[in-house]
Automatic annotation (TrEMBL):
Gene that encodes it: thrB
Name the record gives this protein: Homoserine kinase
Keyword annotations: Amino-acid biosynthesis, ATP-binding, Cytoplasm, Kinase, Nucleotide-binding, Threonine biosynthesis, Transferase
Enzyme nomenclature, EC number: 2.7.1.39
Principal subcellular localization: cytoplasm
Length: 317
């Protein structure tokens, strides 16, 4: 390993829940134009102390100092899990995802950091071990451990969490012509706050309905029945409780359904919305519509994406 070479790492944006799989389903996305939608972390070398500099479009949304930054916290968590003192690093983060957005911004920084440290220090952790460390770090931000952002950001694709399995998650099939428009309005909604409004309990009937819609979606993916899969995209858990936080959702859903959009849902904990489309023309029109009717300020971001089949990775310099 040559410490004087800058090493660059990337992890993609992700959408938790995908409406039908609260805390159990998540997908990584990438813009159609091949650009990167996610954080980039550089390991610039080794030094006497651990330092982090930050640039990027959303740097202003982060805490002022760097000691609270998730990348620094990830370094110490990685070191602690390893059980030995590591050389200190000079780090640089390009913060390309908005914070508190529902695009998996915290997960993205956590994933790129753990991935980078594991690569730089010669892979001491297995994929499953690293994923667990990522999820614990993400739990520290949102108040509960959930994998639906870290798993797709790390591994790519559409990931279903497998409760109780040592495999942790499984990559699901997708539809080749599905595109997703992500629209972040520019306002911040913390995951922690959006979890505080959730119901503490579900009735038996509600629990069965939730398991049923998720099963319907997953089986339709495997049988490649597109209309059936799209029809199953109903959020029976989080959306009813979060609607007051995102009152635009229902009118936008009605308008976009009339324009041929398969589904409009909350990306993760919001406020980003995701619109599922099965034609490039509809996706393009939807992006314009959401930019006009949902974007609220200069921080807003609207982008037409496809599923990112690759997750975190090293970038060529
Ligand atoms: N590098 C970082 N990237 C993102 N958030 C960070 C980072 N470092 C510290 N934070 C803090 O972590 C918190 C992230 O909040 P939150 O989990 O709500 O955002 P999010 O990941 O964008 O949301 P979601 O999980 O719904 O996509 C904020 O308080 C933010 O200041
Ligand atoms: N499943 C999580 C995702 C947060 O991004 C939630 O909805 O709270």
């Amino acid at each position: 390993m040559q410490n004087n070479n800058i090493k660059r790492y990337y992890a993609p944006a992700s959408t938790g829940n995908m409406s039908v799989g609260f805390d159990l389903l998540g997908a990584a996305f990438e813009p159609l134009d091949g650009s990167l939608l996610g954080d980039v972390l550089e390991i610039q070398g080794e030094a006497a102390t651990l330092t982090l500099t930050i640039s990027g479009r959303y740097v202003h949304q982060l805490p002022a100092g760097t000691s609270d930054n998730l990348v620094i916290k990830a370094f110490y968590a990685f070191e602690q899990a390893l059980g030995r003192t590591l050389p200190r690093l000079t780090l640089h983060l390009q913060k390309n995802l908005p914070v508190g957005s529902g695009l998996g911004s915290s997960a993205c920084s956590i994933v790129v950091a753990f991935y980078a440290f594991n690569d730089y220090f010669d892979q001491p952790f297995s994929q499953a071990e690293l994923l667990q460390l990522m999820a614990i770090a993400e739990g520290g931000v949102s108040g509960s451990v959930h994998y639906d952002n870290v798993a797709p950001s790390y591994l790519g694709g559409l990931q279903l969490m497998l409760s109780g399995s040592t495999k942790i998650c499984r990559s699901l099939p997708w539809f080749a012509d599905w595109q997703v428009v992500l629209c972040y309005p520019g306002t911040v909604l913390s995951t922690k706050a959006a979890r505080e409004v959730l119901p503490k309990q579900l009735s038996l009937a509600h629990s069965i309905a939730f398991a049923g819609t998720l099963s319907r979606f997953v089986s339709a993916l495997y049988s490649q029945e597109q209309a059936e899969a799209a029809a199953a995209l109903q959020d029976l858990v989080a959306e009813p409780a979060r609607l007051p936080l995102i009152p635009e959702l229902l009118p936008l859903r009605t308008a976009l359904a009339a324009a041929g959009v398969l589904h409009l849902g909350i990306s993760g904990a919001g406020p980003t919305l995701f619109a599922l489309c099965n034609s490039a023309a509809i996706a393009e029109q939807t992006a314009h519509y959401l930019q006009e009717h949902y974007a609220k300020n200069q921080d807003a971001l609207t982008v037409v994406c496809r599923l990112a089949t690759a997750g975190a990775r090293a970038l060529e310099n």
